[in-house]
Amino acid sequence: MAVRVLVVDDSGFFRRRVTEMLSADPRLEVVGSAADGREAIVQAQKLKPDVITMDIEMPVMDGITAVRRIMATRPVPILMFSSLTHEGAQSTFEALEAGAVDYLPKNFEDISRNRDEVARVLRTRVWSIGVRGLPRHAASAVPAAATATAAKVAAPPRPASRSLRGKVKVVAIGTSTGGPVALQQVLSALPANFPVPLVLVQHMPASFTAAFARRLDQLCAITVREAAEGDVLESGCALLAPGGKQMVIESRGDRLRVHIADSAPDQNYRPCVDVTFGSLAKAVPGHTLAVVLTGMGADGREGARLLKEGGSHIWAQDEATSVIYGMPAAIAQAGLADHVLALPEVAERLVETV
Q1: Distance of CA 152 to CAs 219, 220, 232, 322, Å?
Q2: Alpha-carbon gap, residue 126 to 113, rounded angstroms
Q3: CA distance 172 to 302
Q4: 265: exposed, middle or buried (C-beta count within 10 Å: 0-12, 13-18, 19+)?
Q5: What's the topology of domain 3-132?
Q6: Residue 336 main-chain phi, psi, to 5 deg
Q7: What fold is seen in the domain 144-353?
Q8: Choosing a second label site near 186 at 20 to 30 A (CA), which of 60, 124, 328, 339?
């Protein structure tokens, strides 16, 4: 059975273009379109699509408001189209918090100058989230602590797992589709006195990562910032890999530092989880706790294999709470996961274990 799609955009030209690309795939069926958020709500109720593609800026009712209303009445996976600007980043994060599960650049040349590649990416994203449906714990279910600026306060000590007490020097988290909200859910539940540094790799455009780091920093008790060349890894601080680059962790003296490297032409992910995980396998063998969250593809698997060979521990998100069960599935299927956890369990287990 084909995945049924509702296309929402105030531009008739853009609606037709998206419809043409999707309709070329027999797995997809465009069942309707809407020119604004209010019409989208009506059509979503009437047509009951499996996926909605949604513009953010529209007359009558904007896309973010429409997402909130649709998710409150008849939840359905929603893919946002976003501009790759600072303002576009802020709006995209708001849409994801409202319940959208993924986003793509509205300017298709930001995906590729090859029209066939653009169509392939769009069809793959829509089909994947349509087949998967919404995770058991919907992406809009953000912890209450994340709805306001978090106080940078410490939590009282909790008993640690003896098996990893004193062994973990870095927590590394890799994720892709569904990752922005998943990371917010995990990081906002960590106390300010979290005892080890964290490094984060989220597949995200270069124009988004600085804004995303600032947003997380406002919502979390720990410190979060975009990583820069020479940064020292510090307890209670999470460094986010900059988009378009690669974040390598190096051991220099008695400290771990960040090296920001250009991406090689053959590297599909920029930043790439495998690159960061692999560097940690060299820099702190046996002392990394790596966590692979929701995401499409298998990025992180080979880096996790290197970490595992050196004695480090690997966790993977479970299928039920993943927006896309690709990256964590690759970890589990390769036999690399020491634990498979539901998303709401991850932060609590980190605090208990580390």
Answers
A1: 10, 7, 20, 29
A2: 20
A3: 14
A4: exposed
A5: Rossmann fold (3.40.50)
A6: -95, -15
A7: Rossmann fold (3.40.50)
A8: 124
Residues annotated as catalytic (active site), given as ranges: 176, 203, 299
User: How open is the CA angle 226-271-164, to the nearest 5 degrees?
Assistant: 75
Residue 144 is given by DSSP the state G
Q: pTM above 0.85?
A: yes
Can you give the C-alpha Rg of the chain in angstroms? Answer: 20
Residue 158, token pair as written in the block: 């909790």
- Pull the structure tokens for residue 61: 């009712």
The amino acid that residue 209 corresponds to is T
For residue 146, what are the contacts with CB-CB under 8 A and spacing of at least 6?
A: 184, 185, 188, 219, 220
Mean pLDDT of the 200-204 span:
97
Q: Report how far residue 65's alpha carbon sits from residue 8's, in angstroms, rounded to the nearest whole number.
A: 13
| C-alpha closest to that of 219 among 197, 244, 189 | 189
Write the pLDDT tens digit of every residue in 82-120. 998 888 899 999 999 999 999 999 999 888 889 999 999
DSSP readout, 160-184? PPTTTTTT--EEEEEE-TTHHHHHH
| Domain spans of the chain, in order of start | 3-132, 144-353
